[in-house]
Amino acid sequence: MKTNNDIKLGVSLYSYQDNYYFHRLDVEGCIAAAAGAGAEGIEIFSDTMIPEWPYVSDAWIDKWNAWMERYAVNPVCLDHFSDRAMWHDKQLSDEQMFERGVMYIKLAARMGCKAIRVLHEEHIGAKSFSGYKLTDYDTIARLLPIAAEYDVMLALEVHTRDGVGAPYQQKYIELAEKTGIPYVGLQQDFSTFSYCISTADIKGAVYEGANEDLLMFIREKQREAYFAGEEFDYEEIREKVEAMKPNEHDQQLLRFVVGGHGPRVPFKQLYKDLADNAAKLVYCHGKFYDIDENGQVDDMDYPKIFQILKDNGYKGYISSEFEGNRRMNQIGWCDEVEYVRKHQALMRSLLNY
Q: In the prediction, which pLDDT does 129 show?
């Protein structure tokens, strides 16, 4: 469904990962499901959904273009992974990483995608993985002229708890400004704004043996703090939680609640940084794990996020990225198609479309 809206809605086909993995949907089926949900744009995973990757034939490109025409959708984004660990016994060199980055850029251009989503070194924090390098600053700087030549944006996905305003993320915006090559920018993943444990996480953890009452207690305390305009402080409830005798499965989720991917920046600051950078963002992932009985994402303040983006000049795509599937499918088949449909409906309502 093609529109002229400043903010357009897409779907990352990652949202249908289990349907694809278990052969319930092929690539065309995933595209059809996204179009049926009302999406305008498509993001595709090259490594898993393009059988010929990285040496893609013109015949496959013709097929891709036919799908775009048949389902009245636009090619938006091609996913780029780090690939350094693609071999079991070695890491790729910087030169090999650069060469593969060029492959992604050239393929995106052939497919009509105006962006590649890059898992860069700092996508979940200043020090993402010990001993495992992702696509780093120097490689991205080398790729910039290639991206400009092929008119493809390098969209660096930000999952961090300190958001797009962090200095180690801002250095990429500064790189574009310093070089005069505006082909690298930040991609906001909405998981940055998760204010409580998702019910999807709780369902999965309970299946493994966690205490549902304990996890729901923590979730409600997190929600109480957020909607009171306060920051959640685990220390205030630690004694009560410990009295409920958390088991090893509870402890596993608790470690993320307390620590996560680095320190939590106050939400007031996160939202300010989003407002300050909205017009500079090049892409957004509408991450979600579960949708409640009111049709709202159950752990993120979507109305507030969307209002900030609208008020502060964001222009571009927001693509549904459903990740509740991996958390909930172990307790019964999770209807990814229906979840994405509900999510698209929610986003349209928030944009008054």
A: 56
- pLDDT tens track for 242-261: 999 999 999 888 887 877 66
| Distance in angstroms (rounded) separating the CA atoms of residues 48 and 259 | 31
Summarize pLDDT for 145-197 with one digit per residue, the tens.
999 999 999 999 999 889 999 999 999 999 999 999 999 999 999 999 999 99
CA atoms in the 13 A half-sphere facing the CB of 193: 26
**Which domains, ranges and CATH numbers included, belong to the chain?**
7-196+264-350 (3.20.20.150), 208-258 (no CATH)
